[in-house]
Amino acid sequence: MSLRSLGLASLLLASNVAFSSEPLSGWYAGLIAGGTITPSINFLLPGFTPYSNIPSKLSYGIGGNGGFQLGYRCDQLRFEGEFDFNYSPYNKLNIGGLIIRKSSNINILRFKGSTQFFGAFANAYYELFAAENDISFVPYVGLGIGYAKIKQSFTIYTPAISTPAFPLLYVPSVAISDSGSKSAPLGQAIIGINYFFDDVTSLGLDGRYITSRQIRDFGNERMVAETINLVLNFTFDQPNN
Questions:
Q1: What is the three-state SS of the chain?
Q2: How much is the mean pLDDT over the chain?
């Protein structure tokens, strides 16, 4: 048998092993990481005179999240505790029609900031597979409830002023900052699919919709994060030979 034929046979055997594996019941642990999209929110700027009473809209850039989980699988059900950090940078601020963008140009009115939260969730999942069938790809759905500390940091920079005719007349950019944090309950809905490399190791791709209750400091709006994640899990229990 040639090396090429042997390699092909090995791949086919590995494929058959992967498809014959079943998720083991027992304790597991894993890591989660992904990207975050945060919808725009309406709010006021109470600490930023003269803009304090003007309705404003804050838009976000693409952020990220990461964390870890520890759980227990029982047949098609999974129950886990998840700890997650989420970071959403600000991108654009609309204050009554005045557009302020995130920028490194010191000669324009600009701003920067972010919304961050560190939360703990209790999640429950249902895995959509039939125990008597060969398993490799396993869809799942889940719900979670939790609690998080949500932090906002915000800085507006006035433009630096200089004139070529009077080089000594220079007014530097001034930073006006504000920050705050709130603790709030969170909920999340989860849908995804796992690929089982073997009986104990899986890699999942899922989407999560995370939302809080209405928060007064957010203009009585909810903190919302929509995430796309890779989830790697490893089961502690080993298969019986």
A1: CCHHHHHHHHHHHHHHHHHHCCCCCEEEEEEEEEEEECCCEEECCCCCCCCCCCCEEEEECCEEEEEEEEEEEECCEEEEEEEEEEEEEEEEEEECCEEEEECCCCCCCEEEEEEEEEEEEEEEEEECCCCCCCCCEEEEEEEEEEEEEEEEEEEEECCCEEECCEEEEEECCCEEEEEEEEEEEEEEEEEEEEEECCCCEEEEEEEEEEEEEEEHHHCCEEEEEEEEEEEEEEECCCCCC
A2: 81
